[in-house]
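Worked example 2:
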Amino acid sequence: MTGKIVLASPRGFCAGVERAIDVVEEALAKYGKPVYVKHQIVHNSHVIDDLSQKGAVFVESVDDVPNGSVVIFSAHGVPPSAHAEAAARNLRIIDATCPLVTKVHLEAKRYSREGYSILLVGHRGHVEVIGTSGEAPEVTQLVETVEDANKVIVPNPDKVVCLTQTTLSVDDTRKIVEALKARFPRLVFPPKEDICYATQNRQNAVKELAKGVGLVIVVGSKNSSNSNRLVEVARDLGVKAYLVNEFSEIDPVWLDNVDSVGITSGASVPDYLVQEVIKRLKESGISEVAELSVLKENTKFSLPRI
């Protein structure tokens, strides 16, 4: 094919992901290998493979960590029970939870103390949702869809707060929130919304990208919530869009009758994977590469004190 590649910006690593990866690498340098990480530190298989080769061991249960070892909690956060279990095992805890996820945890604790029912908009089974729900399980209900919003029941309709998973689709979440507002006119929200800046920025960039291309390729792992949302945002605008973990997953058929290809990547994706996709597309005959810059990001998070 002939045509051009348009790269969305911002794309790739966000501040929370960079911080989490740095935490693992710094822990390996300080304590030696192995260090144990509860759940994947970020949702990208290439990052996980790289850190595994350096000496990180990824587990799903604190019970799988030998007594006295170093355990790192992933960027998605964990429920309080995980902290208690780790302390009981005499583990050295390093918390790599993204500060924006920590914000939602603190909100859950605060509103629970103040007697609110918590409606948490998110995806059932996602580790971030499990962590946030664990802060106040007795008063938290998960709302995944508009249908859920129309059915949920709370003890006191005048004392309800809405929190959200940080990596959701802004547009889909808005529909659910509107349904909740219609049922609970006194619904409360945190002073600053929970969907993170990086999720919003990447979705906004994809919306601009989709206006001028015939195909959008999102680089990201299948279990990455924010990467999947980027695909959905593009498709909702009527553009063909696919999620690929790496260049080898590109189907040449996707390129048929396409003059321009938009490329972006999820917040946990190293940029070398995007460059490999560009190289593959150039081999297919695309010669021009342009960048569509929607805004510049300069957010940085400091490492945990430990």
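The domain at 15-97 is CATH 3.40.50.11270 (Rossmann fold). The radius of gyration is 21 Å.
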